[in-house]
Amino acid sequence: MTPNIQALHAVGMAQRVSANNVANVNTEGFLPSRVDFETGPDGEGVRVQRIVREGSHETRQRERRREALRREEREERHLEEEKAVGRRVRERHAEEGLRQAGENRRREEALRAEDERIRRADEAYFAEKTLREEWLAEASATDLAAEMVRMIENEQVFAANAVALHTQMNMQGVLIDTLV
Description:
By secondary structure, the chain is mainly α. The chain has 2 domains: 1-55, no CATH class; 56-140. The protein contains 4 helices and 2 strands; from the N terminus they run αββααα. The chain has a two-stranded antiparallel ribbon.
């Protein structure tokens, strides 16, 4: 494969990555990617070395916190279900009029422990609510201006390599009507 064809493949991949970044500009928490290039075999041409997820350390930490919040929300739903069961247990106890001192004390302690656990969960929820709302309001980390510049650069590099490949093929006697 000629160096120009390698470059066309590499630049095409870079263009697809940039297009994906632009397409996800409004996706909450999206971290854009970039393409790192390396020199091709025998020191000729260029190829994709790797595709790297961008984003600062702080952005990655925020994404980890978001995932932790999602887990907490699942646990919170579970606690709400337990809280409803606790209410039903209390209502049943009141309705049945269970007045046995030892049994009532044990049940009350269990209910107090459950109420305390629910209170702590509520405190944690409300303490994180503002932070959660800020995170959810944040769009992706995609910089549209930088992506547009990359896409224009990719277009120019692609066109230059297509012209070079066309010229090379013409010199070898092969006619290519259009490559681009």
